[in-house]
Amino acid sequence: MNDILVRPSPVADAVAVALARTFDLGVRTTPKDASNDEFLYALDDPAAAIGVVSLECAAWDIIGCCRGPLVLVPAVATMRPGGTPGLIDRVLVPLDGTEEAVRAVSETARLFHRAGTEIIVLHVFDRTTVPACWDQAAHERTAWETEFRARFCVPHLPHPRPNLVLRSGTPGENVVDVAARQADLIVLGWSRRLDPGHAHTVRTTIDTATVPVMLIPVDNGGRTE
């Protein structure tokens, strides 16, 4: 890691400083009038660890073309209850139960953990994935959680027993709701596919989250070091 690259705006600058403080990095700004292509070119510099842009000036072509971690900052961010201004103390890591998604975010989660940031894992069930034991005895649910941790937390995440939150319903809506209550930043692995039928959770999260969202391409492995 070398520095945080930010397209300057008041909200993006504040998040860039918070990330730089977390990872002990510098902050580098692009010119205010830099085009999307110029920002992407600067972000391809190996010295740029993470890009930070405000949603007000981040077109979807930046999101789709970015090959490394990109943080999208809502125009009006709302601090979670108990949060500390200017600090990233808790990070929400939604996992969809695939190896690709957890591998994409694993290195970034480790870096946050080393910096003292709490990692919260979220898994959301829908009608097709909710386990048969969900309405059964508590010990059945405990067994399911133990298996989930063994498959997706122990091999990939920095702490074998991170706080695990389980929800049922629409993934994007649940990501946004849990983050608003418990996190300062969302870390999402994604496929970089924006064609119809893909990235629904990403779109919903970016459009409605009240905290910054870090997107990490699943084929990138989390280029954060």
From TrEMBL:
Transmembrane segments: none annotated. The lineage of its organism: Bacteria, Bacillati, Actinomycetota, Actinomycetes, Mycobacteriales. This is Universal stress protein. InterPro entries: UspA. Residues 89-217 form the UspA domain.
